[in-house]
Amino acid sequence: MPNDDLYAVIMAGGSGTRFWPASRVARPKQFLPIAGERAMIAATCDRLEGLVDLDRVLVVTSGELAGQVSECLPDLPRENVLVEPIGRNTAPCVALAALEIERRSPNSVHLVLPADHVIEPATRFRESLAAAVDEARRDSRLVTLGVRPTFPATGYGYIEVGEELARHGDLPAHRVERFVEKPDAERAEAFVASGNFLWNAGIFIWETQSVLASLREHAPGIVQPLADAGRATGLEDLYPTLPALPVDVAVMESATNRSVLPIDYGWNDVGAWTSLPDVTPADAAGNCAAGGGRLMTEGASGNIVYGEDGQLTALIGVDDLVVVRAGDAVLVCPKDRAQDVKRIVERLRDEGPEFL
Q1: What pTM, to 2 d.p., does this model score?
Q2: Fewer beta carbons under 10 A from the terminal one: N or C of the chain?
Q3: At residue 339, does pLDDT exceed 70?
Q4: What's the Cα-to-Cα distance from 257 to each of 17, 174, 211, 260, 325, rounded to whole Å?
Q5: Within a domain: 1
Q6: Helix or strand or coil: residue 307?
Q7: Which residues pair with 161 in a beta bridge?
Q8: Cβ distance 321 to 334 under 8 Å?
Q9: Do 75 and 89 sit in the same domain of this protein?
Q10: What's the pLDDT tens digit per position in 36-81?
Q11: Which of 240, 268, 296 is the last residue of a domain?
């Protein structure tokens, strides 16, 4: 059952440039049906159903995107949309939300979630979150979820797991030994082989007072100016002066009261077009389609296609391509060059900003 002292914070201010041209400055990835029929932010909120009531879900985003939050989450109270004047990474986002939750419920626990992950099954995810809430209340722990790695990824940060500290039902909570930034291939292979490392999913659970105390200890230059500014006064001038740090660096790397709960079910941060086959069903030839459009193929295999509702994409005799049609732009590239979309985005800043 929902807990009256449990809140959730959904971070929804990212730009999602690796999903251009579907993801644009005016409508980034988290507001698109990248991995299903629902916008990713709506699917994130859906996963909390039965654990956190919607009136205790806060979304942190930019002023330009606030309207899309309401469009995707029409029942979310307007006062639950917190606006950052400018993106300064996740630590200021976390501090802004924690201060607002403290005003509403000083003795609460809250979850912090990215808006654009795919996590299945939702029932097991909620079980993990409930266990993490119990761990957070045990001796005021700062808790994160770590994903058991399935391959030696170099694009994720890692968490080294220490001794088991407690059990919540059949779910163990371990001490966090250290956070490790994205490793090279050799180190990633060693991490996975050791069995002592988890992927850092960027999901956090903590008592509101505990995270604020940690921010005041380890990142006073972020939380204190926000606390002094109050609810919204002067944020436009203040925010650009705040250190642009991820909360992992600002708080978690320095804190000592850290716990991690391993998860071994489906998690994907859907970081690039090549992630779609992991979260979208494919046809018999390995072609997968997303976005609501229709796909027809003749002698084509292993392709990744995104088309909007009402659009048809037809592929003949081509293999292993990424084909994206969105609005006034089309992207076509081999799957092994999908990461290079960021080069196009960088060029467009000077050569075609109207397409961003």
Answers
A1: 0.94
A2: N
A3: yes
A4: 35, 11, 11, 10, 47
A5: no
A6: strand
A7: 176
A8: yes
A9: yes
A10: 889 999 999 999 999 999 999 999 999 999 999 999 999 999 999 9
A11: 268
